[in-house]
């Protein structure tokens, strides 16, 4: 296949100039549409002959008026933390839900989870609110409460049918993500954890671009110890740096498996290149800790239960609490306030 001659967009530019408000179109967007809100709208090769071309070309290209609305929605949130991964399947959503339960152990903390993973929203299942519907009032969408101090909102709640494949193209997905960020009424919160779409996809860029303006603390990067995952995580860390998002640290998930019968430890995803700790050192970012594989984590997620409540003495639970303490440190909090029993 011939190499593409098209210059890729620079991360810094995309983040600095997030997508604009979508103009009203007179026809469906054609294949290879650059996006009616993008800088190339109306001027790209694929725009030639499109009935929307003139509309897109004249659409406003200035700062997105929705950005201040999103920032206002999140103004009462003290700490906003993105959970990111380079690759799917490494435990990003699992870790987000574990982190939320950990923060919520202290009844004085108010915690929110926002699931923006449009292609694989698994937070509702993991938090046990899959069959819930969102309450919408004049003030916006209210989160679904899992505990008195733990609210959840997922983009899944805005999708027509949870089993439908999401095959929308970029611009439509971005529009939905933006709508979602604009509509949720969080009120006052201590912690908001945002489960982001994996990799550096278009949706990932949108979520970061929209939230960056709202003053996020930074991103926690989740990986497995395997080089195949680390490879993508390097790109993710590079992305965060270029986008000006602070990397709060790296968590190595699925680092070991300790057999519950014989206590033998196996490296299922062997760290052939130094694992998460090695990568954190290499890239000069904090290593927050390693969480073992524990089938009870997967089970707790499937049943929408808190792993912390169900298995408080397990090695995985202790490891997770260590990660929470390191993360608290990184955002300038006393770990004993975040997890009082530590
Ligand atoms: P991602 O959000 O990165 O796509 P998920 O959080 O959906 O990944 O996790 C992928 C799978 O791995 C899920 O089945 C989840 O239950 C399981 N899983 C994640 N972390 C662990 C762990 N530490 N121990 C056991 N299973 C895990």
TrEMBL record:
Protein name: ATPases NBP35
Region (Disordered), start-end ranges: 16-44
Entry's Gene Ontology molecular function annotations: 4 iron, 4 sulfur cluster binding; ATP binding; ATP hydrolysis activity; ATP-dependent FeS chaperone activity; iron ion binding
Pfam families: ParA (PF10609)
Gene this chain is encoded by: NBP35
Similarity comment: family membership: Belongs to the Mrp/NBP35 ATP-binding proteins family. NUBP1/NBP35 subfamily.
Ligand binding ([4Fe-4S] cluster 2): 259, 262
Principal location listed in the UniProt entry: cytoplasm
PANTHER family recorded: CYTOSOLIC FE-S CLUSTER ASSEMBLY FACTOR NUBP1, NUCLEOTIDE-BINDING PROTEIN NBP35 YEAST -RELATED
GO cellular-component term (any): cytosolic [4Fe-4S] assembly scaffold complex
Role description: Component of the cytosolic iron-sulfur (Fe/S) protein assembly (CIA) machinery. Required for maturation of extramitochondrial Fe-S proteins. The NBP35-CFD1 heterotetramer forms a Fe-S scaffold complex, mediating the de novo assembly of an Fe-S cluster and its transfer to target apoproteins.
Binding-site list for ATP: 86-93
Gene Ontology BP annotations: iron-sulfur cluster assembly; tRNA wobble uridine modification
Residues binding [4Fe-4S] cluster 1, per UniProt: 33, 47, 50, 56
Keyword Metal-binding: yes
Compartments where found: Cytoplasm; Nucleus
Keywords, comma-separated and alphabetical: 4Fe-4S, ATP-binding, Cytoplasm, Iron, Iron-sulfur, Metal-binding, Nucleotide-binding
